[in-house]
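Repro:
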Amino acid sequence: MSSLLTSILNVLARKESLSMTQLAHELNSSPRELESALEQMEHMGYVRRETYGQSCGNNCSPNKSGSHCEGCGFASSETFAFWALTERGESLADIRQK
């Protein structure tokens, strides 16, 4: 496993909330390079992309006051994506930390 992939594994094992920019900065990598590495790790089964928040349907739009979505009533249609270790990734991180 490359040093970048190993570094990503170690950082994600800490279970901290970091933006892609913060993670890239910590790993001395570009966000584009980091995204590519994470996608590779996802394909290998070490990480998964998760979404937090409410996702509205295609027919939704903010009401005139902007306080909620007209179509579904959610307070916000904003979602946040983040990366988490899978069970396989956690096992590998545990092995590497010993």
